Amino acid sequence: MEGDLCQAENEKVTSCLGCFVKKEYQFSKKNALIFVIALAVMALIIFLPTPPDLMNGDELISLTQDGKTVFAVLAFAVVLWMTEAIPFSVASLMMIIFLTFFGICTFDKGVNMGLGKEVILFLTGAMGISAALTDSGLAERIMLVTLSKVGTSTKRIVFAFMAIGTALSMWVTDMAVAAMLLPLGVTILQAANAEPLKSNFGRALMIGIVWGCLIGGIATPAGCGPNVVAIGYLKELADTVVTFPQWMIVGVPAALMMLPLGYLVLINVFKPEIDHLPVSPEGITEQLKYRGKLDRREINTLIIFCITVFLWLAGPTLRSNFNFALSDAGIAMLGFLLCFVPGINVFDKWSDAAKEIDWGGLMLIAGGLCAGKLLADTGAARYIAWLLLSGLGTWSPLVRVAMVVVAVELMKIFFSSNSVTGAIVLPLVIALAQDLSMPAWTIAGPAAIATSMAYIMVTSSPTNVIPYSSGFFSIKDFAKVGVIMTVIGIACVTISVAVFGNFNGMNIWSV
After folding, report:
1. DSSP conformation class of 49
2. What is the mean pLDDT of residues 270-290?
3. Is 91 left (phi over 0), alpha (psi -120 to 50) or beta?
4. pLDDT of 408 higher than 90
5. Residue 90, C-beta contacts closer than 8 angstroms, at least 6 positions apart
6. Where are the alpha helices (DSSP H) in 292-338?
7. 129: closest CA among 392, 285, 305, 254?
8. Cα–Cα distance measured from residue 478 to residue 339, given in angstroms and rounded to the nearest whole number
9. Which residue intervals of 62-173 are DSSP H helices?
10. What gap in Å lies between CA 129 and CA 335, rounded to an integer?
11. For residue 54, what are the β-bridge partners?
């Protein structure tokens, strides 16, 4: 496992990732037909007769024509999101155009409801800090240091990759962590002479990378896009502020329960064919020696990262006792902007950071926020929630949380984006919680966490596709263990909410 081999593998994987992540949209008759079908679905819903009213006791719950139009525009986007006929972000922004065209809102109001929210700045800052960790090499160094302590046991290596993925993806975007872990994982498999689609060690290690990233993504608001979207919806639709520590009180225990259980599933279903690598761990040690001591860029990145995390965690205390003015979004932007301060210079140019930020993802979320707000304002979210989930209030607290998570996981099978799933389901559950006089956080929190658990379909998240591109596991392999992991995830989230929710305002037992 020499440095040049690892470098070559990095270049190979980077090239592969570039083909997947930056692939340009190309016109095709199939996509054109799907686009026409999406338009037809929208028109059909708009012109269909208004459905009958629902009853909430003596109160009528109606779907207005404006509400039906918002739902029709969302259905248009859902068809395009499910089929990927056009890029997610384009479909999302088209919603703002159509909502303006149909007179549901003015264009400037639509833009303000999407791009004008601080959730966009939070994600921009978080992605920028993630880019700094990756670009400076600090994240890779942390990974190498950890692996140098693991040894040559294949089972320990699988667990180490999962644990590192979990720890890093709490703070770095899932996709970036998968991209960092993949090259070293492939190099280790090559050293072990593991054959793609034949090696259980290869299956366990590559799927372990995916799971580690997904598990870590639920632990903090910065871990995955839907987390921040959920916080944004709660503030906009339910006037409920969820802090960084509040999220972690439930998210971290759920992640810590999933990690060992997921590991046990992988090594038992895909038991490695060898117990130890046929090479010594000295190769990783040599790479660390080759890198030398922390350079100035890495040190500056580490300091900025620690400051940002400290402010995120201590923010509520600082705001209440010291009049600290910055919100979590402001802290994220502060950390990102510090990377450009002369003398620190983690980034020399804006373009160096900008190329690592998923601007399309931000546009996707902006359109989703706009549509979600209008679903709530027109009463459509309330009507749909009652139509689909009106029995929620009669269920026991544990069953209620579990069923919300189950519903989200079923949706994950059809959607290729965590953010898309969150954009659709969160306004619905918030509206329903308000009607049932439940704190929105008790329902939207578990739903938001569940949007990150894309364990069944490879296509449910770009994070899944990165290790899949290595060729060591099939879609069938992924689904085989993914169904088991989904059940585990549902149980872990439900238990975490039931036990630890008492400490962060998510007390399901008092509802």
Report:
1. P
2. 81
3. alpha
4. no
5. 363
6. 296-322, 328-338
7. 305
8. 38
9. 65-83, 88-101, 107-114, 118-135, 138-148, 154-169
10. 7
11. 61
Q: How many CA atoms lie within 13 A of 193 on its CB side?
A: 5
- Which tokens in the block code for residue 505? 């305002």
3-state secondary structure 58-72: CEEECCCHHHHHHHH
> φ, ψ for residue 23 (rounded to 5)?
-65, 125
pLDDT digits (tens, 9 = 90+) for 32-74: 999 999 999 999 999 999 888 887 667 788 888 999 999 899 8
- The pLDDT assigned to 228 comes to 78
Q: In the chain, how many H helices and how many E strands?
A: 23, 2
Distance between CA atoms of residues 309 and 222, nearest Å: 10
- Its pTM surpasses 0.85: no
For β-strands 59-61 and 54-56, DSSP reports them as antiparallel
Q: What number of other Cβ atoms are within 10 A of residue 355's Cβ? A: 12
Query: Residue 448 corresponds to which tokens in the numbers above?
Result: 């938001």
3-state class percentages of the chain: helix first, strand second, coil last, to nearest 5: 75, 0, 25
pLDDT of residue 492: 94
**What's the N-to-C CA distance of the chain in angstroms?**
57
Q: Which two tokens stand for residue 320?
A: 């209440």
Count the residues in the chain: 511
3-state secondary structure of 379: coil
Return the residue matching tokens 């998210």: 251
Q: Are 391 and 404 in contact (CB under 8 A)?
A: no
pLDDT digits (tens, 9 = 90+) for 198-229: 999 999 999 999 999 999 988 988 777 678 77
CB 449 within 8 A of CB 493: yes
User: What tokens were used for 152?
Assistant: 């040559």
Q: Which amino acid is at 291?
A: R
467-480 tens-digit pLDDT = 887 889 988 899 89
Within 13 Å, how many C-alpha atoms sit on residue 248's CB side? 12
100-143 pLDDT, tens per residue?
A: 999 999 999 998 888 887 778 877 887 788 788 878 888 778 76
Report the pLDDT value the prediction gives residue 280, as an integer from 0 to 100: 64
Longest CA span, the chain: 74
